[in-house]
Design a protein that fits this description.
Layout: E1 5-11, H1 17-28, E2 40-41, E3 45-52, H2 55-60, E4 66-70, E5 75-81, H3 84-89, H4 92-117, E6 121-122, H5 124-135, H6 151-159
Parallel strand pairs: 1-3, 3-5
Antiparallel strand pairs: 2-6, 4-5
Helix pairs in contact: 1-4, 4-5
Length: 160
């Protein structure tokens, strides 16, 4: 499957800064040499895709959330949408925190799903600590940041 830890994006054109921010984050955590082995038993590959699309595209099915773990193949594929209007309206520093929060929440999804299934272990909190340390950003600085559209808001949006 390639790299053990992969971060990418699926974005609408005006949200192009998501891609720039991901490149910076990947550089700071040295994603090419980053191993998730110390944090996991049963998950060997993690793919996180940050989605950022306008609501009308979400309604059409673009950028929909995905929280998938294949325990037999030992990989996780997590795709969570960032609130589009809030993202493009924010300054760069806040956009950066929104993308980072999306990645953190994606990691936590894996940890929670592994806990529930008991088919693998995944220390999401320790992985988050390591990433934030490499980023030189405190967890508290993400407390008030919205980096993911909540599931219930997404459902309401899709249901009209």
């Amino acid at each position: 499957m390639g790299r053990p830890f992969f971060i990418s994006c699926e974005i609408w054109g005006t949200a192009y800064k998501v891609s720039e921010i991901i490149k910076d984050i990947c550089g700071k955590i040295d994603i090419d040499n980053f191993s998730i082995n110390p944090f996991s038993d049963g998950i060997e590959n993690v793919c996180i895709v940050v989605n950022c699309h306008p609501d009308e595209n979400l309604i059409r099915g673009w950028g929909k959330p995905r929280k998938y773990i294949n325990y037999q193949k030992r990989y996780a594929d997590i795709r969570l949408p960032i609130p589009y209007v809030e993202f493009i309206s924010a300054d760069y520093d806040h956009q950066y925190l929104m993308v980072l929060k999306n990645i953190v929440e994606s990691i936590r999804v894996i940890g929670n799903k592994c806990k529930k299934s008991k088919k693998a272990t995944f220390d999401s909190e320790e992985l988050v600590k390591v990433i934030l340390s490499k980023m030189e950003i405190s967890e508290e600085s993400l407390d008030e940041v919205i980096g993911v559209i909540p599931d219930e808001k997404y459902r309401d949006l899709k249901n009209g």
